[in-house]
Amino acid sequence: MKRKVALLLAGIMGTSAVLGMGGCGNKGTEELVKKKEQTSADTENTSGEKTKLVFLRSGTEPERKAYWEKMIAGFEKENPNIEIEFQECPYGDDFETKLNTGFASGTAPDIINFTMASLGTRVPLGQYAALDEYVDKWDGKDDFMENALNLGKVNGKIYGIAVFPDPRMLAYNKELFKEAGLDPDTPPATWQEMLEDHKKLIKKDDSGTVVQTGFAMPTSGTSMQHYMSIFIEENGVKNLVDEDNNEILCNSDKAVEAVAFMKEVADAGVIPFDCSNSEQDPFGMGTAGMGIVTDQTYKQLNEGALKGKIALASPLKNTQQATFCGMSFMFMSGETKHKDEVWKFIEYVSSPESMWTRYEDLGTTPIRESLKEKFIEQDPETNQVIYDSINCGTGSPKVPYANSVYNIINEAMEKVMYDVETPKDAMDTAAEKIQEEINNQ
Amino acid sequence: MAKTSNTVPKVRKNDNCAYIMILPAYLVFTIFILVPIGIVIYYSVTNFNLYSAPEFVGMKNYLTMFRDADFLISVKNTLLYTLCTLFPQLFLGLMLAVMLYRKSKLIPIFRTAFYLPNVMSMVCMSMVWLWIYDPTFGLLNSVLKYFGFSVKQWLQDPKMAMFCVVFMSIWKSCGYSMVIFLSGLTSIPDSLYEAASLDGAGGLKKFLYITWPMLRPTTFFLLVTGIVNSFSVFEQINIMTAGGPLNKTTTIVHQIYRRGFLEFKMGYASALSVMLLLFSILITVLVFRFGSRGQDVDVS
Amino acid sequence: MKKKKVNHILWIIFMSALTVFMLIPIIMMITTAVKPIEEIRSAVFHLLPQNFTLNNFTDAMRAGTWNIFFRNSLFITLAAVVFSLLFNSIAGYAFARLTFRGSKVLFMFLLIGLMMPPQVTMLPTFLIMAKFPMMGGNSLFGAGGTGMINTYAGLVIPLVAGSFGVFLCKQFYENFPRSLDEAAEIDGTNKWQTYFIIYLPNSKAILATLGLLKGVSVWNDYLWPLVMTNSEDMKTVQLALTMFKTDGYIQWGQMMAASVLVVMPMILLFLCAQKYFVQGIVTSGLK
Q1: Domains within chain A, CATH numbers bracketed
Q2: TM segments (chain B) (predicted)?
Q3: CB 3.0 to 4.6 Å from B133: which of A11, A13, B10, B154, for a disulfide?
């Protein structure tokens, strides 16, 4: 009986594997067929028939949805022969899954709004189309913030046009500063000052548990790499990995120094939190004097529980003023049959008018030079910091193995924070693992 | 008469209508489970990256697995999770079911209360538990403080994180075991208990000699599905700890998901899935072997 | 007799305490839903709201077309439950009571379905749906269109597959007294009649249990609708709940308010199903 079952199992596994292969084998030929259709579709385009584009954006919040619907309505009015189908999907892993299934089955959307990190992973797969031929002819090219345009480049080619910048900035709680006897109008500007303020802000209860901290330093979680990026960039390191030549920088002396500083801050006394759940951030809870925020979270905190109590500070400096700046882009699918129409929509969304609507409706920082003054005028103190942070911000390394890098760095940072390894050892191990990923490419 | 046909296999007849009866269920099963598993097996010997055409790489993925420290940790964690979740959950479920199998007007209220956690979506409940475990404002630490104990870091503590997830999972699923046990209890004839009462057997004796043996098929069912479910734990891990701190809570499916969908190593992720499947089959066969002695469910 | 009464009171006290303990997280969820935003994010934690408000409910419901989301979820759940109950119970009966060649192996095989986590088979299943022949503009070989993506059929059919249900029904039917079959055999009914006339009417307990479990799992399913649906008119309630979650910020009040409403149909389902739990076959059917 045992043998019979084993045999049967083997048999079924075998047949299902063959069945499976048959199912996939089809895909190859289908793609050929599709490519052919694509060329014929391009020629048919002029016949005045309505072109239908699918646009998938990341996120599901109603405010942004309303904004996109407004954009689509405006665009369709200007281009009556183009119809845009709006789709949305939650941020993060869910969005990756959605795109993966779409591209794997040949049903990917034509226009995609997604993060900078995806540039590294999806451009090498050919899922995003290069936009240079369009950008070269585009009159908005010179007006666009240079750093924002550069962040959309991979190997010198432009693949994405920036929409929502996501700069990481230092914010501080004026009220807690006052309580600790610090000047609420002079936030720290250097690491040393930050560490001093941090120590002064720490409060412990009778049992020695930290109940209020200075800088909200996370001890675990999936965005430890963002925090590390901020500190190593402030210390003059270009990025975790140099995307131009695959040089690993996360274990360079300057980087290790930055990690050691982070550890020093943590050892002085922090409320441990998991940065994968930014809801737990002590800064947002009002139990930390300083923390890292994005322009969106700053706005939300400033309108919510911490109303009027918080302010933004310029990025800290050890050797240079720098920070981490995420960004979401408009991408053109590498599979789309209607490149011209897709570009038209991206151009429409990137126009000064659309950008200003974005600021008015959602508070998104405009990233065109012509809108800079108008933007800063609205709230000189805060908006200058936001604009500068975007201008000097560096993003995630745009390499095909980016998601592995994050994972490895997060693990290494946790080892440092939980005293399992020294910063030097942890970063060396991380560098080794990243090297392995590079070799596997 | 029907009985003899069952006990003496020599004169066994073949009920051909059975094939038609299982056809609908089997058809859907084949198309949507068997064939996908076949595809996964095929991917597992390729370097499929979710987009380009897969290339055959032989057993490379299977060999890589044994050098992958994260994966090996995840296997350990998954086994720990299974052991710590399954048995308490079965025990609690059985106790609740037995305590609720009586006549009282309050029964529906209690039953609903115990089952309620199971009805809630895992995503929503994981977030509520994040609050409970929060080191600063969390309910748990507030209670500890109130009684003068020192506070704990819960999910941020590498030694404790897994048990926090385990506790939440037991809370969520003991109602499920309770319901299945309840439906098992209904199939025990009252006459058995009546006879036992006449013989003067007490509550404990009745439980040991009637309830427990009669519930064996149910327990067996819960054991098999419970093991398999625990092996594929993912959602609460992904939300509450994302595998951390220090990889203390990463599980096999968490690794599969991360490798496949976030790092685009679908070939490798598929190999991990096949290993998980083989391992589940092995455990299930063992459970069938040892767990169903002297019963109808015997398959050997 | 007196001792019995004391026991009963002790039982009530014990069970009540346990109930409160089990319900703490759910109570937290409900109280959050009726707290104003300042209170939710305040540093001092109160279990009960200081200022009661229902704004979260009205705001949450106004934020999307919830009638459509509820309609979709209800329809998908209902369809999946009805079909899986029918398919699974009849297959369970066949495996439990009929003798046919290969039954044990076929059954063992079915169990493999329990062992594959849905995250693993999701991509291949999705490919099958996208390439399904003659659906959604697809040709006979599955090329050209979008298959069953973004259709109710695509959402429901894979969920009908239920190794779990077959297994559960088989275990249940095995406990049925053999005398039932013998009586049926004497009456000369065939197997189909035996199932529909004797077994099915006596399966209320198991059908209620299975229907409940299936209903809850389909209702709470997130991953499959996420990849299968594209448009707003096809969204399910679980997908809709993500609208309260932005990149780094969660609108707790509205999220919890909507969650409370979303779980209501399942609680109703449980209340309807639970009265059958005690009406088992033997207690009601044979006496």
Answers
A1: 48-165+327-382 (3.40.190.10), 169-326+396-440 (3.40.190.10)
A2: 21-45, 79-101, 113-132, 207-228, 268-288
A3: B154
What chains are in contact with A, requiring at least 3 Cβ pairs below 8 Å?
B, C
Could you report the per-residue pLDDT of B105-131, keeping only the tens digit for each? 888 888 888 989 998 888 889 888 988
Segment 294-353 of chain A within 8 Å of chain C by CB: 294, 296-297, 300, 304-305
The whole-number average pLDDT for the span A153-174 is 92
Give start-end residues of each CATH 1.10.3720.10 domain in chain C: 66-285
Q: Which chain C residue is nearest to residue B120, measuring alpha carbons?
A: C263
Q: What is the CA radius of gyration of chain A?
A: 24
CA dihedral A99, A101, A106, A110 (to 10 degrees): -20
pLDDT at position A4 is 52
Q: Are strands A323-332 and A111-115 parallel, antiparallel or unpaired?
A: antiparallel
B238 contacts A414? CB cut-off 8 A: no
CB interface of C with B, residues 168-207, below 8 Å? 168, 171-172, 174-178, 181-182, 185, 190-192, 195, 205-206
* pLDDT at position A11: 52
Predicted confidence (pLDDT) per residue in A309-365, tens digit: 999 998 888 888 888 888 999 999 998 999 999 999 999 999 999 999 999 988 889
Burial degree of A319 (CB within 10 A; 0-12, 13-18, 19+): middle
The C-alpha of B203 sits at a distance from chain A's nearest C-alpha, in angstroms, of 41
Dig out the tokens for A438 from the structure: 């590079």
Query: Cα separation of A102 and A43, whole Å?
Result: 25
d(CA A135, CA A113): 17
Which pTM was predicted?
A: 0.87
Query: Which chains would you list as touching C if contact means 3+ CB atom pairs under 8 Å?
Result: A, B
Mean pLDDT over residues B169-176, rounded?
A: 92
**Cβ contact, residue pair C247, A294, below 8 Å:** yes
CB nearest B38 (choices: A19, A125, A411): A19
Distance from the B90 Cα atom to the nearest Cα atom in chain A, whole angstroms: 29
Cβ distance of B186 and C25 shorter than 8 Å: no
Which residues in chain C are closer than 8 Å to A91, comparing Cβ atoms? 245-247
* Domain edges within chain B: 70-291
Which whole number is the average pLDDT over B146-158?
86
**What's the CATH number for B70-291?**
1.10.3720.10
Q: Are the Cβ atoms of C230 and A87 closer than 8 angstroms?
A: yes
Band the pLDDT of B250: cuts 50, 70, 90.
very high
Tell me which residue in A271, A277, A414 faces B246 most closely, judged by beta carbons.
Answer: A414
Q: What CATH code would you report for C66-285?
A: 1.10.3720.10
CA distance A327 to A238: 17
Over the stretch A215-236, which tens digit does the pLDDT of each residue have? Answer: 999 998 888 999 999 999 999 9
Per-residue confidence band for C1, with pLDDT thresholds at 50, 70 and 90: low
Instruction: Name the token pair of A219.
Output: 């001890």
* CB contact at 8 A, A272 and B153: yes
Q: How far is C205 from chain A (nearest CA, A)?
A: 33
Judged by a CB distance cut-off of 8 A, whether residue C158 touches chain B is yes
Q: How many helices (H) and strands (E) does chain B have?
A: 16, 0
**What does residue A85 show for φ and ψ, rounded to 5 degrees?**
-95, 120
